[in-house]
Amino acid sequence: MTPPLMEIVNVCIDRLAAGETIEDCVRDYPDYADELRDMLGIGTLIGQLSPSLKETQLAQQRSRQQLASRMQEEKKTMMMHRPKRKRTQGRAGLLPMGIAALIALVAGIGIGVVGMQMSTASSVETVADPNVQLGPIPTMVPVITATPFDFEAIRPVYRPTEFLPTVVQPDNIFVLEGGLDDEVITSSPYIVTLDVVFPGQTDENVRISSVYSSSMPDLGGWTLSDDDGNSYTIPQMDAEQGVNYISIYTKAGIDDGQNFYMGFVEPIWQLDDLLTLTEPERGLTYRIRVEDSIESPWHLGDTPTPAPTVPPQDEYQLTATAIINDLTATAQK
Fold first, then answer.
1. Membrane-spanning residues where (predicted)?
2. Domain residue limits, the chain
């Protein structure tokens, strides 16, 4: 008993994938020689088409028309010369699509493969701009949705992560003038930021939010202080890193429902406060005015990034940013 045409096609697809030719398969099924030769030939033709979109679409259209026409002729022939063979309308209608898909998928030479080649070629042509730098991305993630207090005072609470984005800095951040006896260091404008919460109390209330710098000296070991005696020493960081961004945070409170809220506690360092940044080895000092963070490369309007490594008890409220602008200091011997 001769197997159905679909089974024969499946067998031939496997044989083609194993390295046999179309004629090898056709010889074993002489009753379906013409149908098999056309169907398998169409599948091979599809795999050889140019990956250009226009040519591929035209070839697909021609192949579908040829296959549909051939299957219609085959159906009529089968009904005329093989009256005992049952061929349902549903199966005949599915043959053009099913056979073409199987040939393309299994033999690896069909429409799907051509489409993937086109997609891959397109991706290669649209690679990212090599000038775009990939690096640590911001910074904080909001964890508050409500507060049990004044709703007019609701502000997002963010959790600091290891890095903050930084602005591009000029190469001549520090210029040495004179000799060792009277060393003057002049700074170009740049931003210095680090997490400071209630300085002068406990280290548990201080977090470093940015330790990445490639164009300015490491501020590790420098002291940040105010005129009232509150101070904080910036910790030493990795040799290839440097603190270059100082943010002042207010530690968030927790209500009875375990929701974080602002807490309405003012930080010791606020907007317009004057701070002193002191270099430890030569005694260089810089006066810093705490300014609004609108000039910061990151602000509250940016898209937050999850920071799952920071525990909930270390939530802080960003309140201000300290910015250094064109300051000059003279070393004291």
1. 92-116
2. 5-125, 130-333
